[in-house]
Design goal:
The structure holds two protein chains of two kinds. Chain A is mainly alpha-helical. Chain A contains 29 helices and six strands. In chain A, strand 1 (about 75-80) and strand 2 (about 80-85) form a beta hairpin. The longest helix of chain A is centred in the first third of the chain and has 49 residues, at about 20-70. Chain B has a domain at about 275-515. By secondary structure, chain B is an all-alpha fold. Classes of the chains: A mainly alpha, B mainly alpha.
């Protein structure tokens, strides 16, 4: 055992070199995107598949090496504030600068981004492989693979970037690819519209992200300019208080204020300054705590856009218009988790604002419940999965808000496995049933598509949280943290969030089992498009099997088998693994005590039992209703109130309609007025056309001088010269 | 005893590029006599290789320190050497364009390329001249060669008319320049620019009128060559009448050489003069040229004529850079007011360095872009249309994106670059020039420049609109393709985009200290 551990902790390559080659991981899919996008049509389908799948597989291999490296105790990334253990990174110089502000192009992989690397490239590879079969009848295959590769490159930039601007490049890149892929079949107006909806909703979030970043720049600058008398508060073990601000300022000059290490160092400074008022500058009069809370809430808005949380979740269900592999990769496994990744990345800032933490927890829990309730009545296979994704993302946000960053991140990983498996399973079902996705028109799939059935069942059990599948451990860890941790300033928030979360977890079990029973266990529907379904080929089932296996074995991360260093308590494998990432978070927590995390002394059997019971109850009700109750009452309508509830849920609580009425319509009216009056008449008519008319007329008048007569030309030259000479000589003479 | 000047090998570096060009020209003329192969593309290749060699030699010169050579009759400095590199680049590309163009018209003759190389030799030496007689002779070398090239295709009345107009007006302007030089000689007793610089302050006391008159006349002579308004009238007629590859060479080479010679001459001539005089004259020229060129280009439907006016506008931007060199010190505040006033933001030396960089980079960008734009025109124009008036009408470009997507994409890049849209090289050139002008305090003049270039976008984008959004005419003829043309277009297009994205080491070379001797 010791030998094995040693083997995995000794990287095959020099960590320094591994850091230098991080850009290759991004380059490969980018190159793939270029080749498939530009030459895909020429080189043919098979070569396109080879290039696209090969590029992601190459990235995966490199990611494996990097992951191996960051488990090496020698791996060390240098930052302006010393080095970080268990991480590799490289700085490729200044990307852009404006005055004192600068952004460096640096990549960085630690245990957090390293795990994301494996998920993105690993699951990405499987989904690419799956797509080769799924898109085999589509003429736009080269466009599809170009977008998909581009997406992988952008997502990798998002997780590898060591500064918020670089992260934002990836953030926007994945948003753009998502838009392109949702609207992949753009000839269908509804699908093109879904793409647009996703894009616009995301823009709202991006606005929050950007403003939040600007606030952080201002806050950091204000901190470095604080008067010297605050330095007594800033001392840390091994660091004089007086030198802290200078160190921060130097680091910000060297790496740019938005670099992750600089922000991390900044968070340690903020931790001591939260109640201080900023004496001068644009933020004059605000406290650091207030600014930080505002920035975090803006980041939350950004994360809500990308990760489909209330109030910006409405785009994700519509995003299912895209091809199913896209839903699996982008709208389940990777892109939508970037909000959680962002908050894990800046967790040291998040724990400094109890308001922000409580808001995150409440938003997450509410989203989880609302989405789960909507999922109750949806009939589309992918629609249910989409709402289930929204709901699961909500649970992850609950984990973030409860301070269980590792649990939220663990759920990101396990969710990536089982939700990708579910989506791909759904794609396989649709592929084998004439593109039918209404669950009431399927049925008997257990017999017809055995591989798909088995993998779908495993993934369903995983998401419902049945012991011992991986989803159980991650979801339980989140709910357990929401239960035991507390935010003393707003104690009610986490308690409420916990209740909502538990109900949402129960609902998850219900709607997932409902979907499973109706689609797989019911007899073959009379309305099915094909009398029999056909099982998909190995390109599609292999990824299913791998993902199903992964959603089982990922459970090891959730086992409480590690000993927490120095605290004498137990830890799960994942918590232990992510410990280096959240070290500053722990320090800030210890310093301000905004969030109380009681140490875990024993394996929480009680919590496990509780979570298990919730899952079993939800699943049990679904079994009773759909396998016993409804079949026995075939033909009879539902009682009135229940039917009303069902309609309410089926119409997604009319959220789209409310948004349409409250935001989109008024905006449309204002826009029309601006267009008709300001734009058409004032700008187009007077300013643009008027200027153009005057300019063009003067050009036409000047043209009459151009007679084509050489004598006239010479005369004009002579006149010009004479004018100049007269002016000069007269000036000289005077 | 013979009064032999002492000339060392070291002095001869300055003439090496020109010598290479002349040698190539002689080889071409001899080959015309001794080789009678029907396929004469090799001539273009010889011209290309010759200008390549000359370019490399000139590039080598560009890293030598600036100094007087040939007893002060010439200088060798990075400014003129870089200019020579660009002229060689332009000549090489233009001869590639000419190969296909002439073959299509059955007019491939050795003397065509020889004349091009002679013109290039004249340009190279003109940029290095430091004495009025040398300067005049080199100006005539390049001018006579271009007169002949303009009228090279003698089909229809237009080439002859263009050549003759160019010759008459060119001779007129040459006479003005010579007259100005004579007056300055009369005032100071020297024709050497470096001596003029020291003698002029003294001469001003006694013979100021003579100096001012000479100054004005020389300026008029140069203004003709760079096609500054109101000395620009010949440009559209000549540019339109000349064979398109020759127009391409004229628009880049003649202009570049004249601008460089102008900068060198006036850096010497302003000594001792009232600083307001050169400043106001140059700003007026720049203002009129920028605005006039763009306004005149706007109503043109004839793309070749439009490009001719556009080249006037671009000369205006270059003159804006030149004006920045002659901004009076802040202490002597301007008395003109309005657009023609300036309050320098930076010290002169810093401004000058950025002006030189701006001018050279602008010329480089304009070289590849303009050659490409005229090259595309040359590629699509039909021999049968030569005598008609609608040869270069916008309609001829309609639907080019369907017929020749590669050419259309390249032409779009050239148009965007001429309009100054990032990431094309034209944007960076404008940026350098305008920022140098702003640093020199020419804020209002720079604003006028930017506004007029915005107006210019109209006619550049109209070309793009025609190529991409109008259907091709039903009787659109098949285009005549020749590999040399394609190579030239590809090189120009790639350079237009690449230099705009990665100005890289080139911009750094151009911003070294000591660019201009004595500058």
């Amino acid at each position: 055992m010791q030998k094995l551990v040693e083997f995995f902790q000794t990287a095959p390559v020099d960590p320094q070199q591994a850091g230098q080659m991080l850009w290759l991981i991004i380059l490969l899919p980018l190159l793939g995107a270029f080749i498939t996008g530009v030459f895909g049509k020429i080189i043919g389908r098979a070569n396109t598949h080879l290039v696209a799948v090969g590029a992601v597989f190459g990235s995966f291999l490199l990611s494996l090496i990097v992951f191996w490296t960051i488990n090496d105790y020698r791996a060390m990334a240098t930052t302006p504030f010393g080095s970080v253990n268990y991480a590799v990174g490289a700085d490729y110089g200044t990307w852009f600068s404006a005055g004192a502000f600068k952004v460096t192009f640096g990549l960085f992989a630690d245990h957090l981004s390293g795990s994301m690397l494996l998920v993105i490239t690993g699951v990405g590879f499987l989904i690419h492989l799956y797509s080769t079969e799924y898109m085999s009848h589509d003429d736009g295959y080269w466009r599809f693979f170009a977008y998909l590769n581009l997406f992988v490159a952008a997502m990798l930039t998002l997780v590898l970037g060591d500064s918020l601007p670089l992260l934002f490049v990836g953030w926007e890149g994945v948003g753009m690819c998502s838009y392109l892929l949702i609207g992949f079949w753009y000839t269908d107006p509804a699908k093109a519209f879904a793409g647009r909806k996703a894009f616009i909703t995301n823009r709202i979030g991006d606005f929050g992200f950007l403003v939040g970043s600007f606030l952080m720049v201002l806050a950091l600058e204000a901190a470095t300019k604080m008067p010297a008398d605050v330095s007594s508060k800033l001392g840390r073990p091994g660091l004089e208080g007086s030198s802290v601000l200078a160190r921060l300022s130097d680091g910000a000059k060297q790496k740019g204020p938005l670099a992750v290490p600089v922000l991390e160092e900044g968070s340690k400074v903020f931790a001591s300054l939260l109640d201080d008022t900023i004496p001068a500058g644009p933020l004059e009069g605000f406290t650091f705590g207030g600014v930080l809370t505002a920035a975090l809430l803006l980041f939350l808005l950004g994360a809500a856009g990308k990760s489909a949380q209330i109030p910006l979740y409405v785009w994700l269900p519509d995003a299912m218009a895209g091809p199913t592999p896209v839903s699996a990769l982008i709208h389940a496994a990777t892109m939508v988790t970037s909000g959680i990744y962002l908050f894990c990345r800046i967790s040291w800032l998040a724990v400094l604002s109890p308001t922000a933490m409580a808001t995150i927890a409440l938003i997450g829990a509410t989203t989880a419940l609302v989405a789960a309730l909507i999922a109750f009545s949806q009939k589309g296979l992918k629609k249910v999965l989409a709402y289930s994704t929204v709901s699961q993302l909500g649970l992850m946000f609950l984990g973030i808000g409860a301070g269980a960053f590792w649990a939220a991140f663990l759920h990101v990983i396990t969710h990536a496995f089982f939700k990708a498996c579910l989506f791909l399973g759904a794609g396989s079902v649709m592929h084998g049933n004439g593109e039918e996705e209404d669950i009431t028109k399927l049925g008997n799939l257990r017999k017809e598509m055995p591989t798909t059935w088995l993998t779908f069942l495993v993934a369903t059990l995983a998401i419902t949280g049945i012991v011992p599948l991986s989803g159980f451990f991650s979801k339980d860890a989140i709910l357990h943290a929401a239960h035991t941790n507390s935010i003393p300033a707003v104690a009610w928030a986490l308690k409420t969030a916990w209740v909502l979360g538990v109900v949402a977890a129960g609902c998850t079990a219900f709607y997932m089992m409902r979907m499973y029973f109706v689609a797989f266990e019911y007899p073959r529907s009379a309305e099915a498009k094909t009398p029999h379904a056909h099982e998909s080929s190995w390109h599609m089932t292999l990824p299913l099997v791998v993902l199903a296996v992964l959603s089982v074995v990922a459970l090891v991360h959730g086992l409480p088998i590690m000993k927490a260093e120095g605290r004498g308590t137990i830890q799960t494998l994942m918590e232990n693994f992510l410990d280096p990432v959240f070290r500053t978070t722990q320090e800030n927590l210890a310093k301000r005590q905004f969030l109380v995390i009681p140490p875990e002394e024993h394996v929480p059997w009680g919590a496990y039992l509780q979570a298990w019971l919730i899952a079993l109850t939800g699943g049990g009700i679904a079994f009773f209703l759909y396998m016993r109750f409804f079949p026995s009452r075939k033909g009879q309508p539902l009682p009135g109130p229940l039917e009303a509830l069902r309609t309410f849920s089926w119409n997604k609580f009319y959220v789209d309609e409310v948004y349409n009425f409250v935001i989109i319509r008024p905006l449309g009216v204002v826009a029309r007025v601006l267009w008709r009056v300001v734009d058409s008449i004032l700008i187009d008519g007077v300013a643009v056309r008027g200027t153009a008319w005057v300019t063009k007329q003067s050009g036409s008048v000047l043209r009459y001088l151009q007679t084509g007569d050489a004598q006239a030309y010479a005369a004009i030259m002579a006149l010009g010269l004479a004018g100049a000479l007269v002016w000069v000589l007269q000036r000289y003479a005077l | 005893m013979l009064n032999t000047p002492t000339v060392t090998m070291f002095d001869l570096h300055v003439v090496l590029p020109a010598a290479a060009l002349v040698f190539g020209a002689i080889v071409l003329m001899l080959s015309e006599v001794f080789l009678s192969s029907p396929n004469r593309t090799y001539m273009a290749v010889i011209a290309l290789v010759t200008s390549g060699i000359a370019g490399v030699v000139a590039l080598n010169n560009a890293f030598e320190p600036a100094r007087l050579v040939l007893q002060g009759f010439a200088v060798i400095d990075p400014f003129s050497s870089f200019m020579t590199v660009m002229v060689c680049l332009g000549t090489g590309l233009a001869s590639l364009l000419a190969a296909g163009f002439l073959k299509h018209r059955n007019a491939e003759r050795g003397e065509f390329y020889a004349l091009m190389l002679f013109a290039a030799a004249g340009m190279s030496l003109l940029a290095a001249s430091n004495e009025f007689i040398t300067l005049f002779i080199n100006l005539e070398v390049l001018s006579v060669a271009t007169y002949a090239l303009t009228a090279f295709l003698r089909r229809g009345p237009r080439p002859a008319e263009a050549g003759f107009k160019y010759f008459i007006l060119g001779a007129f302007a040459g006479a003005l320049l010579l007259y100005g030089a004579a007056l300055l000689y009369g005032a100071t007793g020297t024709t050497r620019l470096s001596d003029l610089a020291t003698l002029l302050p003294g001469a001003m006391a006694t013979r100021g009128g003579l100096v001012y008159a000479g100054f004005g006349l020389v300026l008029a002579g140069f203004a003709f060559k760079v096609a500054a308004v109101p000395f620009h009238m010949w440009t559209p007629d000549v540019y339109e009448g000349a064979p398109t590859p020759v127009t391409a060479l004229m628009s880049v080479g003649v202009k570049a050489a004249a601008i460089v010679a102008m900068v060198r001459t006036f850096l010497a001539l302003v000594n001792g003069l009232d600083p307001q005089v050169p400043f106001i004259l140059f700003s007026l020229l720049a203002l009129l040229t920028m605005v006039g060129g763009n306004l005149l280009a706007m109503p043109q439907r004839n793309v070749k004529r439009m490009l001719a006016y556009s080249s006037i506008a671009h000369a205006g931007y270059l003159l804006l850079g030149v004006t920045a060199l002659f901004v009076p010190d802040a202490a002597r505040s301007s008395d003109a007011g309005g657009v023609l006033s300036a309050t320098p933001l930076l010290a002169n030396a810093a401004v000058n360095a950025s002006v030189y960089k701006g001018i050279l980079f602008y010329l480089l960008g304009y070289t590849v872009t303009s050659i490409g734009a005229f090259g595309t025109l040359a590629a699509i124009e039909r021999r049968e249309d030569e005598t008609r008036s609608n040869t270069w009408d916008l309609e001829r470009l309609a639907g080019l994106a369907q017929r020749q997507p590669g050419w259309a994409a390249a032409m779009a890049a050239f148009m965007l670059s001429l309009a100054g849209v990032p990431p094309m090289v034209g944007f960076l050139g404008k940026l350098y020039i305008f920022s140098a002008a702003v640093d020199a305090g020419l804020i209002w003049l720079a604003v006028v420049g930017v506004l007029s270039s915005v107006a210019g976008t109209y006619y550049y984008l109209r070309v793009v609109v025609y190529m991409f959004m109008r259907p091709a005419a039903a009787d659109a003829p098949a285009t005549f393709r020749h590999w040399t043309t394609e190579v030239a277009l590809v090189v120009s297009a790639v350079a237009t985009v690449a230099l705009g994205i990665v100005p890289g080491p080139i911009a750094e070379w151009l911003s070294r200290a000591g660019m201009v001797f004595g500058g």
